[in-house]
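We store amino acids, tokens; thus:
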Amino acid sequence: MKLQRKNRLRATALGVIAVSSALALTACGSDNNSGGGSTGGGGATTGAASSVKCDGAKGQLLASGSSAQKNAMDLWVKNYMAGCKDAQINYKASSSGDGIVAFTQGTVGFAGSDSPLNAQQVEDSKKVCTGGGQGINLPMVGGPIAIGFHVEGVDSLVLDASTIAKIFNGKISKWNDEAIAKLNPNAKLPDLAIQAFHRSTDSGTTDNLTKYLSAAAKADWPYPPAKKWAASGGQAASGSGDVAAQVKQVNGAIGYFELSYAASQSIKTVDINTGASAPVKATAENASKAIAAAKIAGTGKDLALKLDYTTKADGAYPLVLVTYEIACDKGNKPATLAAVKSFLSYTAGADGQKLLTEASYAPIPAEINAKVIETVNSLS
């Protein structure tokens, strides 16, 4: 009898803990800074959903693109749909290139891309943004591109831009190479082949990595920045998640992906020697320091940013990306306009941006983000 009573008490305690944990997860990002909750078509909102303003959003909204922002998008969609019961957001994480193609073909309401639209893509967007509209870039997610590695017996690693370039360009092929050893005098580097993984499809993450290498290690990276991988050799994987999975599994592997993939899979990441007083770790806070120096390069409602990949400021992680949500400034489809504005207002709002830090991303700097919110509200 005493044992049965003890087991009942233990089960009750575990139940209380489970309920408390569920409530804590529901409340994540629930600070209401948007002036009140929304019923989302009649349903009461609680917890994280209380900050969502549905504003008539209903039906299915298709979107696709960047896999770098997938973990942020998963959180956003879950919280948004908890508040807006009549709206369904379906984001397909593939690649920035795929997302832009889908947008310019008119099959999605917005796209995610880790690089802004180029001139030809803006021109193509005018075919689907009616009434003189065009696609614009709305910076929504910031973060470091982590260089993840898996070398058994090596817990920390420092590399600089030149060494990273040589590794991904096939000029450094062993982990005990002199250049790596010089940057890591206390590490026991093995005589092990380097297995470098890159993206197989057009990728904004690749574009940002190659922009960094072109700017900071031009002599060792002879290729122009591009979404398509240009270097020979190495092994390809289709998305950020697939690259991270390969690095996790293969001893001797190295690859690049958004930090949240490293955090979620406990993958070790490289500290970058930028020439600052100390090597810089890949963290959301350090990425924010670099992104804060970005300048708006777009014109009109377009908010494309110019990043400084060669920063030597202490604590500023230079290998960063900004993911843009791409939408029509005007001429959006009437059936999905309300959902596009409502959802992007949430993601750009205080609660949406707060979730980024919790998921190892970096929020967009406040001055730039205020312009994003203003622009989202003006979409038509």
Q: What stands out?
A: The longest helix spans residues 2-27.
